[in-house]
Amino acid sequence: MTTQLTPTEVRATGRTPRLTADDVAEVADALAARAALGATERDLTRTHPYDLLQDLASTGLLGVTVPVEAGGSALGRGAAADVLRRVARGDSSLAQLVLSHFMLLEIAAAAASPALLQRLHAVATGGGWIGNATAERGTAHIFDRRTTVTRSADGGWTLTGRKFYATGALGSTAFGVAAIVDGNPEHPAIVFVAPEDDGVTIETDWTAFGQRSTISGSVVLEAVRVDDDAVIDLGVQPADPPRSPLGSYDQILHAAIDVGIAEAALADGARFVRDRARPWVESGVDRVADEPHVQLRFGQLSTQVAALVALFDVAVRAVDVLEAEPAPTEDQLVDTSLAVAQVKAFAQEVGPQVATDVVELAGTSGADERHGLDRHWRNVRVHSLHDPARWKYVHLGRHLLDGTAPPKHPLF
Asked: Which architecture, in CATH terms, is 148-233?
């Protein structure tokens, strides 16, 4: 087991420990156990888990995809998905707060200048984290953006706009803003700013009924001055962009959180039924856990969650194999996309179902918000709305029936 540094020690030394694959599971599980202790209270009070984020950033888990020469563990994209799944078992809001951290590191590795990539790697291995400000409200669709970055006369850039669903931006070392260059919607860029920069305002106006502790509210950008080396200019995009392996990576990270919530809901529900719930008067047993109907349903739920985890493991392996390919073929990219689509769609069914059923099996006492059983349903329901499962199944069905490849979408 790699020796862990405290957040204070990380800030003093400027480094986090390198981890092995075995370390990742142990460290992430330990962090999840700590996060679970206060997860219900944070959910009830909409409290941002800043201290836990510092703990997470100090463990080395946020550097699992960073190359060894840059101070990371170089364990690959599958390791990042495993981190999110394990952390989500303890607090899914905490896991979602660092999802964009992993995604933006990969985009930077593919398209950023060496200087910017070095800076972001230093954040990941120095006890910080990277947030995002990608989505906007009031536009035609998720890829219709109005936030604009323009060249300044002095050679820098000026960034102006308003974002929402800015998960991870609050308290971050830096966060990536999806923008368009000079108002051209076909010319995207990612601009990195810090919460304390002049012209940056992060608002805590997050009111969703789930994932409350993410505080994924608004970011206002008022003529923010940005250096040239803080901008990833992605260029004017072709009408038919090439298929990217990063699409599957983004989706497996989201799926990881839903899988973790389903596992947590099942475990917490079973514990509540075993230790706290009262049997129905007609059952003739002393414990709810001895009711055959309850045993049957928990057996069914455990099988569904096991199937979900198995699909997740298959998709993670596909993502890892794809990452190892220096020049993946179109077929490899499509196959990985489909494997990830299966677990993503299934998680949107299994997660809410498990989280609903455990409350029913717990009985009326399980509805008391102090116990936190309801948060699993609210969290998985809100998080899984990122993209609708119905379209995943359409793509899977089309491919099975006539070989149609799933569509390609820009990341930003």
From this structure: Beta Barrel (2.40)
Other Cβ atoms closer than 10 A to 7 = 17
Residue 321, both tokens: 């194999």
CA distance 142 to 54: 30
For residue 8, name the pLDDT band (cuts at 50, 70, 90).
low
C-alpha dist (Å) from residue 292 to 268, 279, 321: 19, 11, 44
Domain ranges of the chain: 7-130, 148-233, 245-402
- In whole angstroms, give the CA distance from residue 253 to residue 59: 19
DSSP state of 232: E
206-235 burial string, b = 16+ CB within 10 Å, else e?
bebebbbbbbbbbbebeebebeeebbbbbe
Helices (H) and strands (E) in the chain, counts: 12, 8
> What is Dmax (Cα atoms) for the chain?
81
The residue with tokens 């990539």 is 117
Q: Is the pLDDT at 156 greater than 80, yes or no?
A: yes
List pLDDT tens digits, range 233-247.
999 998 888 899 999
Fold of 7-130: Butyryl-Coa Dehydrogenase, subunit A; domain 1 (1.10.540)
What is the CATH architecture of 245-402? Answer: Up-down Bundle (1.20)
